[in-house]
From TrEMBL:
This is Nicotinate-nucleotide--dimethylbenzimidazole phosphoribosyltransferase. The gene is cobT. Belongs to the CobT family. One of its GO terms (molecular function) is nicotinate-nucleotide-dimethylbenzimidazole phosphoribosyltransferase activity. InterPro entries: Nict_dMeBzImd_PRibTrfase (IPR003200), Nict_dMeBzImd_PRibTrfase_bact (IPR017846), Nict_dMeBzImd_PRibTrfase_N (IPR023195), Nict_dMeBzImd_PRibTrfase_sf (IPR036087).
Length: 340
């Protein structure tokens, strides 16, 4: 177990020192890919995904055997501003649903063979309304990051992080606005389904959030503290620990990606171990992924969160790895190779 970072500076330093993927495994996986019984490139993006995964696992012929899914839940003071189509109590109610096995993420993790755990973080202590000042103190931020960091199973060979938190698309939009600029309207969407008036109000709230938190635009981890929520901070903590442990990560939707983006902007390369599982229907997810240089694996118009898009993408990655690691070479199968 790696020591849990106790300060923003310690987290930054651990990401700075995090190991790179294994160059020999990448070279060997690339060579193997070139010998498999298929026309070159015929498995499309599955081929690059398999080679990417091989590098992070330092194994030219790996399989996915122990995927882990972490779902974090948090409540947001900004909900009092009327930014969600649902009331805040849905967060705790959905946590009960996760624990009873009744949510979409439960079914999708079962189908993907992923070990799911749910971490509700101080639901009776919402973050402060970030239109009035920082959402979290430094201590609250680091405590939530630690919960995510410590939830990662060092024996896992793939990680997905999901979230549940009424109001958290407002938080994610504010973070994106702080990290990537533009206007509040560029990053604000309907979330669980606010109407036109709700969207206009939410856009104003996102703009106010940046005015109330002037340090957020110049420091990505401050953006997470000032504009984030506990579940976003926990996802960032888990994704950062996975980077240190060289566990590949599949990102989920808009909120997960916003949390992860704070790491990338704090330390370039901090998300090299992560792929985008899907493209959310929340319109600002596409420009956020583009800014991070990530192409989503799936695009199914989903906007549920919980880790559901990432859980589905596990099955695509498993497909990539069973082909890469299980297929015969031209020589083994006695199949004539094509022109070089
Ligand atoms: O993952 C996404 O892209 C996504 C897009 C829209 C909404 N959500 C989920 O909806 C909740 C937040 O929506 P809202 O409208 O309350 O901000 C939260 O629990 C998220 O998991 C998730
Ligand atoms: C019912 C419901 C389920 C969710 N799962 C993730 N976010 C959600 C938001 C709502 C409203």
């Amino acid at each position: 177990m790696t020591d849990t970072p106790e300060t923003q500076a310690a987290l930054r330093e651990m990401l700075d020192r995090a190991p790179e993927p294994d160059a020999d495994a990448i070279a060997a996986a690339r060579a193997r890919n070139g010998q498999l019984t298929k026309p070159p490139g015929a498995l499309g993006r599955l081929e690059e995904l398999a080679i990417w995964y091989a590098g992070w696992r330092a194994d030219p012929r790996p399989r996915i055997a122990k995927p882990q899914a972490l779902v974090f839940a948090g409540n947001h003071g900004v909900v009092a501003r009327g930014v969600s189509a649902f009331p805040a109590e849905v967060t705790v109610q959905m946590v009960a649903n996760f624990e009873a096995g009744g949510a979409a993420i439960n079914q999708l993790c079962k189908a993907a063979g992923a070990d799911l755990s749910v971490h509700a973080i101080d639901l009776d202590r919402p973050t402060a309304d970030f239109t009035q000042g920082p959402a979290m103190s430094e201590a609250d931020l680091m405590e939530a990051i630690a919960i995510g960091w410590e939830a990662v199973d060092p024996g896992a060979d793939l990680l997905i992080t999901g979230e549940m938190g009424i109001g958290n698309t407002t938080s994610a939009a504010a973070i994106a606005h702080a990290l990537f600029g533009g206007t509040a309207g560029d990053w604000t969407g309907r979330g669980t389904g606010v109407d036109d008036a709700g969207l206009a109000l939410k856009t104003t709230v996102v703009a106010e959030a940046l005015v109330a938190n002037p340090t957020a635009a110049s420091d990505p981890l401050e953006a997470l503290r000032c504009l984030g929520g506990r579940e976003l901070a926990a996802m960032a903590g888990a994704i950062a620990h996975a980077r240190v442990l060289r566990i590949p990560v599949v990102l989920d939707g808009f909120i997960c990606t916003a949390a992860a983006a704070t790491l990338d902007r704090a330390v370039p390369g901090a998300l090299d171990h992560a792929v985008a599982g899907h493209l959310s229907a929340e319109h600002a997810h596409a420009p956020m992924l583009a800014a991070l240089g990530k192409t989503p694996i799936l695009s199914l118009d989903m906007r549920l969160g919980e880790g559901t898009g990432a859980a589905l993408a596990i099955q695509i990655l498993k497909g990539a790895l069973v082909c890469h690691s299980g297929m015969a070479s031209f020589a083994e199968a006695g199949v004539a190779a094509g022109q070089p």
